[in-house]
Structures are given as C-alpha cells and as structure tokens.
C-alpha cells in the first residue's frame, strides 16, 4: 500500500543466518563504526536510513552489546541472565547466553573421569594450573560470543563468575579490539540469608553434584564458595578509573549502582533490572468475553459483549476471587515451610486488574468490586490497530486486499496493517514495553483482560515463546491463563470456562508446544 | 461519541483548586489509603475505576510523592530540581518546588538589615541559634509542601541542603504521619572540578551576594561551603537500615545509586535522572515542508510534499549544515574560554535526524546525506491520530460532528479524537515519553522533523510551557526552532524560511509569550 512499510519488513538478523559476517578489519574501515554508536534503536519500529553502500551490503546497524556477568556462585546470576535474555529477545534483539560453567563441564568430560574440574580444589586461587584452565575456558566462551555477534547477534551475555580484576581486564582488553561492541558489566550481590540459603540448596541439585552424597556435596560447595571468596573483587574504584560501564545489583533490585552506562540498549537493560522483585504472586490473563463482533467474525472495532460474553464475565469475577484466595493460602503454607521470607504478607495487598480502554474488556471486569481490586483501564492494552482492515472479517480482507492478506501471511510479526495508525506485532511489543516493566515492578497479583494479539504478546514474554511461534499461538476466548513466576521457572496453568456448569476446569493439554 | 472517553475528560487536580483537602485522619480511615499505593498511573491515559463512594466524593487517586533534595551548595541541586519539575509537569503530574533558601531570604528581610542570615556565620554547625532557625525554616517549607499536596498537588520537591542525618530524620518523622505520601531522597554529588568551579561562579551572582564585592562574596561563600562540609553526612548506611528510599547522583548521571525505590512515579523520576548529560549541543525542530493536504487544509493523512514543500526541504538541509558548523565553532570557542571541559569533542559526533514515519516528514529530510547524519524514522513522532476526523478540514469536522468540535474546544489537552485509535494530547505525551528520555540521553546535536501537535508537545517540554498554553501554541510551517540547553536556562531562537531569498532569517519576536 505505502512504500513506508516495505523497507521495514526485513526480519532482524537471525542467529543462524551466517550470511554476512564482516571481519573486524572490515568493520573498522567502514562508516559502520561511526554510525553504529547512535541512539534509539527498536527493531522493526525505528527505521534507520542508510547510505547507499551500506544498504547494498545488507549491513547491520545498531551496535552490539556484550554483557559480562560478575558474582559469586549462588548469587542469582543465572536468574538475572535468563530474565534479561527473555526480555531482550521479546523486544526482538537477538540475544544469546554463553555459560562458562557448562563449557567447563563439557570440557572436563572424557579428559578426567574423577570429576576433578568440579571439585572445590579446581577453584582454589592458589592452584595455578586450574586457574589457567579456568581463564582459558572463560576466554574461549568470549571468542565464541564475539564470533556469534559478528554473525548477526545483538546482545551476547558472558555468564561466569568473572570474580577477579585480572580476569575482567583480560575480557576488556579483548573487547577493545572490537570497535562495534559496547560492554556492560553486571554484578549480582546477594546479602539476604534466606535467598542465599535457597540459592545454595538449588545449586546442590546442579549437574556438578549429580549422584553425590548430599552432605559431601554441600561440604564441597561450601569449600568452592570459600575459594571464590578468597579471590573475589567487587566492581568499583578500578572500573571507575578506567571508565568501564557497570551495574551492581544488590538483593534483586533493592539497591542498584550504575556507573557510566552508555547506549540506549544498556539503559533499557538497567531500567528493566532495577524493577523486578521476587514476591510470590500470580498473573492471570484472559481475553474479554465474547463480543457481538466475535459472533460475526469481525476484527477490531469496539463492540459490547454478547449475552454469552456477559455470563463469562460474571463467572470470571467469581473464579478469580476463588483463585486469589487459594493462592494466598498456598503462599502462606509455603512461607511456613520456609520457602519465602515470612515478612512477605501478600494477603493485605490490593490485587490489580488491568484492561484495555475498549468496551469489551471493560465490560468483562464489570463484576469486580472496586473496593477489593485496583481496576485500571489503559490504552496500552488495546488490541492491535488494524487500520483499513478494522471491522472487516478475514474473508473480506482477503477479497478486498489480497496483496495485504498475503504479505501478512508471509511475515505476521513485522506486517503492519495499512492505513493511518495501522500497527504491526512489533509496534504492539514496543507499546507494551512500559507495561512489562510495570508488571515486573509491582508486588501484587494481577489479572489482565485484553485482546487476542496483545495476549499472545504478553504470554510470549511471560512464557519465553519464540518469535516465530508468537503470532500463531492459539489463544481462545473464555480461557484463563495462570502464570506463576517462581525463582527457577514459570508455571503455566490453563483454565477453560465450562458454559453449562458455569465454572472453570483445568485443561491439562500443554497449550504452546 | 463513545462513553469511554467522557470519564477521562476530567482534568488533573489543579494546584489552586483547593476544593477537596481531606485531613490526614480522613485519609487514614478511608479505603483511599490502601488503594493509593497501586501501580501504574499516567494522568489522562490510565483510568482507574473507583468505588462509588470515592467517585462521589471526587477523591483523588494516585499516591503523592515527596522528593527531598540532599547536597552541598553548588552541587547542581537546583538544576536537577528544575529539570525534574519540568519533566513531571509535562507528564501532567502537578509538581511544585519548595525552596528553603528563598524562604530564608524572605524570612530575614526586615528582621535584620545586616544580612546576618546570608553570611557564612549563619551556616556554622556550632552556631546553635542559627541551626535552630535553619531547621525551622526547613520544616516550615515541608509543612507548606504537605498542605499543598493535600490541596491536590502530586509531587512536592523540598529543595534544601538537608545535609545532616538529624535533619533528614526530622523530615522522615513528619512524613510518616502522612499515610498517603511516598518519599524519595535525591542527593546530588559533584566531584568534577570544572563543573564545580562553574557552579560556584554562578552562585556568586545569587541574591545572597547582590551588591557585594566579588572577592568578599567569594570568600564568604567559601566559608559557607566549609561550614556545610563540616556537618555534611552523605546518604548511605543509616538510610539503608531504615529502608528509606534514596537515589544518589554523582556527576550528573555518570554514577547513580538507587536504594529501595518504591512506586511507579519514583521509578520514572530515576530513569529520567539517570539519562541526562551536560554536553553542549543544539536541538533543531521543525514541522515538515508544506504538504498537498496543507494546501487544502485537511488534517491527518499521509500526503506527499507540495513543490513548495520540496523547496523548503532542500533549503533546510543546507541551513542545518550551516547551523551545525556554526554551532561547532561556537562550542570550540567556548571550550577554549574554559566554559566546557576540553575533553568534550562535539565535532566528531554524527548528528542525529529524527522524523516520523509519514511521507511528508521523510520527504523533508530527503536531501540530508545519510553518511553525515544518523537519520531515523519512527512512529513515535507521527502526528496525533485524529480517528474519525482524519483527512477532514476543521470546517468539515464542525459541520459533521458539532459536539466533538465543541468538546475539543473546551478541553483540547484531554480531548481524545473519536473513532478507533483516536488520540488526545496527553496520549501523545505518553507516547513521546521514551523519546524525551532518549533526547536527554544522547550527546549529539539533533534535528527533529515532525508535525504540528507533536512539535507543540516537544517545545512545551523543552521550553517549559504551561499545559494550558501548549495546545494553543502557534507553530507555523517552514519555521525552525533552535533550542540550546545551557546549564542555567534554555535559549530559543526562531528561524523562518524566506521563500524568495531561499534562506532563513532569525525572527526576533518571542514566539510563546
């Protein structure tokens, strides 16, 4: 329709494309270097005009970011790394984690059966051979990371303890020869004894201790920690003298120290990391009840609920009240069992209910008591705006705009509806970005009532669903998704409305294979 | 048109309304207290559903924030306070600064003509009488701030040195009895000798030293600083033990320490403060060149430029190149004069050019060389979406939708265009929020080519223009606004295109009285 859109239909460089991997000398001599250090960059949403020669070469724009983790074992590094990767991938930045521990375990397989590379002696700073092997492993990981960035990756995360200045200097030195890479050190510090004890107990179920007696494992891990602690140097003055950008996270966002942060992407990462918490809670998500437009198959619009949709709405209010009470009891039980710090009192919190500004979602929460729930309606949760295709059926779109229909089929993620204001999936992702940060920030449980495309996008974030699968996710009407983030994974349950019994039943079939 | 909109047309509580000032006991006993602590809150954009009794009482929702500044004199507190106030007001949160220094100067008028309350002796921590007077002044300011919040204000900023733990404890104790107030301490630390020397020289032109000999003034200020330094206690361990939320800013965003930040608004403040810098630069803003729709007076749409618009575009590229060179020379001259740290090298930076995704702005920058400028097109800068009124003239809107025309006239800021996706000024403000943070973050100069409403909103932010005036600002076609942020104020120049001479001339008339 409009020529504006076509140039954005390029999908982001895939990690497996490998078709354009400029060597570092290419990069240094091209205008690429100077250009790449500039400002705001949102894949598919902000479009950069390139000089002809770069356009022709299919050069990538936007700088690369290397995130280097720092921290003692069991300080939540992997938790942070996982969340950060998930968030960045959802924002459509190709992100990959390079874990040095896994490399060590793979490297040690075969060459010594006694597992000496897992025992605490391997982590003794006095053990020079072991130290040199550990440095080699870390630098090999870094090389792999750099090679991957050159093949089209955007953010590489070096997941290791990197606990000495010497090691960090090695890493910085290597990265200085890559003109197109920004770096961000992220240190995770945990001083909360409850969280620490829990992290350590999780560690003992790691592959390093498989098949080992629990007491022996615990003793070995304690000694490994001691060895790390002997040599541990926190981020600070030396990094500041050298101007190295870093961020220290103390007790999961409770305290954050950010130094010399550079670049749009690093700023986004830190804002995200600043805002999360470990409160036990649930997030329920649902589409609105059936609307009059749903019955005739029209997309978009602002129709009210059908009588059936109204019955769903009434049942939803009762069901969520029931779920909420059950969740509160479960958390209290787990608190007594020592799983959470006892100070966390969830029952006193007002639960949040968020809907879009459209009639069908607002009507869906009409039976919720505004004294019991903090109910907010917001434009951010509105359905994807279909521009010229608003209030048409898919059959009508295919008939009237066959080329649009085909373009959408080919690349549903980047396809932007024609007409003023028309949106694409990636436009909606950017629109929802502040909401994701807010969802991570608040401690209360939360119900989100929204629309098909927005629900897919939110579930893709929460459940770490691949971008290729996201636009194809089956999300039916009258279904509630319950997402429970736990320190080491997210539990999804699906509840479907049984219209005859006017109650919900749990669907045991995995919804997004 | 749609019932959704009407309930949002409430304007934010004005500072001078005074019609509902619940006493603190009212607040504690009402559901207000529990509710107010919840999540995302964007005036006019996120709508909270209230229980009937609160709706009837015209109760305000959303918690109040008290920002308490901490820092030695000449550390940039007032600069931070000014920017923060401007940003929050632009986001439509009623914000007011309560400056203790001004109160001291007013208080001392009359009761002693010798100006003893300005001389360094007044700031000696050993001087008990003076200390007690200073505490009283600070606490009086705080009372005034609290009273103002109760009358409908949202964010009160207590602008004083607040440099001792004792003082801060007094403040915290007073605020604890206000259930609806969150608090955020912000400390500004400056260790850069160039910035510090510059700040001190600015201080000597303050009212405290009016008419005083320069050497005497400088000596007095040095002694005042020494007195403060004697008693100065930075934010840290004690605040952390008590869980007091704080943020330390070292050298304007170079290093940021955030502790226990609570609430949506405080998080937004910190993200904003983290992202600014003092690089010398210019921001040029312009609407697109005349479009074919401009000729016939249609709003919205995606028309290309008229031949006249194309001539403007060609001239704009030459003019900006000229302006850019001139600015670069001026900065170099000022650097030699010691006004900026010599390390700041602006000439090597690629200048950014941002436009919307619409044809008329993209065509307006077509003559810019993509090798010389980092050119980005983004949806964030698109014109306000007029929904059902897109591609109509104002006359047509008045004829077809007289009620809409009237509603818009009455409250242009909150008026949302009818029809799916229709936007209001406040919707556009929220959409532009990430762009403002990015604009503050980048160090390079910047040209923004956008549309009438977006230009008004951006200029209102940059020039601190009142929300009532913003929707009425006269922003003509073929005019370039040059905004130059300086440490102590922003300089605006207006250049108009002279079509015959095909060049720009400076318009000396103040554009926004």
Characterise the protein shown here.
The structure is a homodimer of 513-residue chains. Chain A contains 19 helices and 14 strands. The two termini of chain A are 35 Å apart. A seven-stranded mixed beta sheet of chain A has the order 10-9-11-8-12-13-14. A six-stranded mixed beta sheet of chain A has the order 3-4-2-5-6-7, with helices on both faces. Chain A folds into two domains: 64-274, Rossmann fold (3-Layer(aba) Sandwich); 283-507, Rossmann fold (3-Layer(aba) Sandwich). Chain A has 513 residues and is of the alpha/beta class. Chain A has helices at residues 3-6, 24-29, 32-35, 52-56, 77-90, 100-108, 128-150, 165-176, 193-203, 214-231, 237-242, 264-274, 292-296, 307-336, 359-364, 394-400, 402-410, 425-441, 452-463, and strands spanning 46-49, 64-70, 95-99, 155-159, 181-189, 246-250, 255-259, 283-287, 351-355, 373-378, 446-450, 479-486, 489-498, 503-507. At the A-B interface, strand 1, strand 7, helix 12, strand 10 and helix 18 of A face strand 1, strand 7, helix 12, strand 10 and helix 18 of B. Strand 10 (373-378) of chain A pairs antiparallel with strand 1 of chain B, so a sheet runs across the interface.
């Amino acid at each position: 329709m409009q020529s504006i859109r076509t140039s954005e239909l390029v999908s982001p460089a895939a990690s497996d494309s490998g078709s354009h991997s400029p060597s570092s000398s290419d990069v240094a001599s091209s205008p690429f270097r100077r250009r790449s250090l500039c400002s705001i960059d949102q894949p598919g949403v902000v479009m950069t005009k390139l000089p002809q020669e770069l356009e022709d070469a299919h050069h990538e724009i936007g700088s690369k970011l290397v995130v280097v983790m720092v921290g003692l074992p069991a300080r939540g590094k992997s938790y942070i790394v996982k969340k950060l990767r998930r968030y960045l991938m959802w924002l459509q930045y190709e992100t990959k984690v390079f874990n040095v521990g896994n490399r060590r375990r793979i490297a040690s397989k075969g060459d010594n059966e006694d597992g000496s590379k897992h025992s605490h002696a391997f982590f003794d700073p006095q053990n020079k051979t072991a130290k040199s092997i550990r440095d080699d492993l870390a630098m090999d990981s870094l090389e792999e990371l750099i090679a991957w960035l050159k093949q089209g990756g955007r953010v590489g995360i070096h997941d290791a303890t990197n606990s000495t200045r010497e090691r960090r200097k090695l890493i910085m030195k290597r990265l200085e020869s890559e003109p197109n890479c920004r770096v961000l050190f992220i240190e995770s510090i945990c001083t909360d004894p409850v969280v620490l004890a829990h992290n350590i107990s999780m560690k003992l179920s790691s592959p390093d201790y498989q098949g080992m007696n629990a007491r022996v494992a615990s003793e070995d891990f304690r000694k490994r920690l001691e060895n790390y602690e002997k040599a541990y140097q926190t981020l600070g003055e030396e990094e500041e003298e050298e101007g190295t950008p870093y961020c220290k996270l103390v007790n999961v966002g409770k305290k954050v120290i950010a130094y010399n942060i550079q670049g749009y992407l690093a700023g986004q990462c830190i804002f995200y990391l600043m805002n999360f918490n470990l409160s036990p809670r649930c997030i329920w998500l649902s589409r609105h009840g059936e609307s009059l437009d749903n019955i005739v198959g029209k997309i978009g619009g602002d129709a009210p609920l059908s009588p059936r949709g109204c019955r769903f709405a009434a049942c939803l209010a009762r069901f969520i009240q029931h779920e909420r009470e059950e969740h509160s009891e479960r958390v209290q039980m787990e608190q007594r069992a020592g799983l959470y710090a006892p100070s966390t009192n969830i029952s006193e919190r007002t639960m949040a209910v968020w809907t879009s500004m459209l009639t069908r979602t607002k009507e869906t929460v009409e039976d919720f008591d505004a004294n019991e729930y903090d109910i907010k309606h917001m434009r951010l949760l509105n359905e994807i705006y279909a521009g010229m295709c608003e209030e048409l059926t898919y059959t009508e779109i295919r008939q009237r705009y066959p080329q649009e229909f085909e373009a959408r089929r080919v690349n549903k993620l980047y396809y932007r509806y024609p007409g003023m204001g028309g949106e694409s999936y990636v436009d909606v992702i950017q629109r929802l970005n502040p909401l994701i940060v807010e969802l991570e920030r608040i401690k209360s449980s939360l119900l989100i009532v929204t629309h098909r495309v927005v629900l897919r996008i939110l579930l893709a974030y929460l459940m770490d669903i691949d971008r290729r699968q996201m636009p194809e996710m089956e999300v039916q009407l009258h279904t509630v998704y319950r997402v429970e983030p736990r320190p080491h994974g997210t539990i999804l349950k699906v509840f479907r409305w049984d219209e005859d019994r006017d109650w919900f039943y749990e669907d045991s079939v995995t919804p997004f294979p």
